[in-house]
Write a structure and sequence with these properties.
There is one protein chain. The chain contains 4 helices and 12 strands. The protein is an alpha+beta fold. It has one domain: Electron Transport, Fmn-binding Protein, Chain A (Pnp Oxidase, Chain A). A hairpin with a 5-residue loop joins strand 11 and strand 12. Belongs to the flavoredoxin family. Its cofactor is FMN. It holds the Pfam family Flavin_Reduct.
Length: 211
């Protein structure tokens, strides 16, 4: 099957892209409204793209009526946000936060979650999240119906049992984030396995010299 994205309707492009670029990690993004009310919204068009500088990216579309979402308004106003990773314990609360509320509604409290003051940005992070990243805006790319926001990570909060004793590697039995597949389907990372590069290249292939 072939699909010409230069002529394909937007709804079909979304369906194909989100179905095959999957699973996608979920960012439960916390921000502060101009009047100080906390806001939380789940984003599955999200990932980490660099460690130097430490950059995460959000892709946030407008509402169906074309208006800008509260998260985008808050990020543009304060130039900061926090990404809270989502595991099974947070799954239902994440869905609750995704409901369209009035700007003066505190989604975090509505979902029964706890806001912890941030260390380096305005606002806070969700205490129940296994990992939260405070970010300042590095760059924003604006399209007609979507903003691509690059955030520089300035602080990371990690639940104590998620890392080994040396603080280097994730304990997969304790950190199992969920991710979105397509439509209302999600997956959790409770089945993990290792794949290691072979010690020697295949016969007849020369390994690239180290630079």
């Amino acid at each position: 099957m072939e699909f010409d994205f230069t002529t394909l309707p937007e709804r079909d492009r979304y369906r194909l892209l989100s179905s095959f670029v999957a699973p996608r990690p979920i960012a439960l993004v916390t921000t502060l409204c101009p009047d100080g009310v906390a806001n939380a919204a789940p984003m599955s068009f999200f990932n980490v793209f660099s460690q130097e500088p430490p950059i995460v990216i959000l892709g946030i579309q407008t509402r169906p009526d074309g208006t800008v979402k509260d998260t985008v308004n808050n990020i543009n106003a304060r130039q900061s946000f926090c990404v809270n990773m989502v595991d099974m314990a947070l799954a239902q609360a994440m869905i609750t936060c995704g409901i369209s509320y009035a700007p003066d509604v505190d989604e975090i409290a509505t979902a029964g979650l706890t806001m912890t003051p941030a260390s380096q940005i305005e606002g806070g992070w969700i205490a129940e999240s296994p990992c939260a990243m405070e970010c300042v805006v590095a760059e924003t790319i604006r399209y007609e119906r979507r903003e691509i926001i690059l955030g520089r990570v300035v602080q990371m909060h990690i639940r104590d049992n998620c890392l080994d004793d040396a603080g280097r590697y994730v304990r997969p039995e304790n950190y199992q984030p969920i991710a979105r597949l397509h439509a209302d389907n999600y997956i959790t990372s409770d089945r993990q396995f290792e794949l290691k590069a072979p010690a020697q290249p295949p016969a007849g292939v020369t390994r690239k010299a180290a630079s």
